[in-house]
Design brief:
Layout lengths: L1 H4 L2 H32 L23 H9 L16 H12 L3 E3 L10 H13 L5 H12 L6 H11 L7 E4 L2 H10 L2
Antiparallel strand pairs: 1-2
Helix pairs in contact: 4-7, 5-6
Length: 187
């Protein structure tokens, strides 16, 4: 009797069912986590009809939204993190999310519209927080503050590599029309 229960065929069927169950659980967990990550930090982009001629920040969060954030004690990204508490992870998340506005990539997870107040806030935060790759972030943010996005794809990939990226490498810079379409898709 036990020989029939523990036959090779039954063991293989049992192992196959176990593998399918485990694969289903992992699929559910990672799909759910990916969806949460994609939606985390998404900001409504306003005023994105025409990018500035100088290539400066577009997709500004409205002044009204910024005032609400400030009134609620939130930073320009709409979170409660204060500058002195900023971490390497925060900088990676915020800068990476802003770069998505301007880069060509097969997949983009997370988005923050580029906004001068956000750039300034992050630069000020580098003076107050202890961030491991401060020089890298300072270089990127100072360039962006001047409206220079000529190497934003390289900036994206620098952060992407810090995060251990394997999917979504930037392969170029969006044209003004492509950027407008991307911003409109985030409204």
């Amino acid at each position: 009797m036990l020989e029939k229960v523990f036959s090779t065929k039954n063991i293989l069927i049992f192992m196959g069912v176990c593998i399918l169950v485990v694969a289903g659980i992992f699929y559910f967990i990672f799909t759910d986590m990916n969806e949460k990550f994609n939606n985390q930090g998404e900001q409504t982009v306003q005023g994105a009809e025409e990018p500035p001629a100088n290539g400066g920040p577009v997709g500004e969060v409205s002044e009204e939204e910024m005032k609400e954030y400030e009134k609620d004690g939130l930073n320009p990204f709409g979170t409660a993190t204060q500058q002195e508490s900023l971490t390497q992870f925060d900088y990676e998340t915020f800068v990476h999310g802003m770069s998505h506005q301007k880069v060509v990539a097969d997949q983009k997870w997370g988005f923050y519209g580029i906004n001068q107040k956000r750039i300034d806030w992050l630069l000020e935060g580098l003076e107050k927080a202890d961030v491991e790759r401060e020089a890298t972030f300072r270089s990127i943010l100072e360039r962006w503050k001047k409206g220079d996005f000529s190497q934003v794809d390289e900036d994206h990939n620098t952060i992407w590599k810090m995060q251990g990226g394997t999917i979504g490498k930037a392969t170029g810079i969006l044209s003004s029309e492509q950027e407008r379409e991307y911003l409109n898709s985030k409204k």
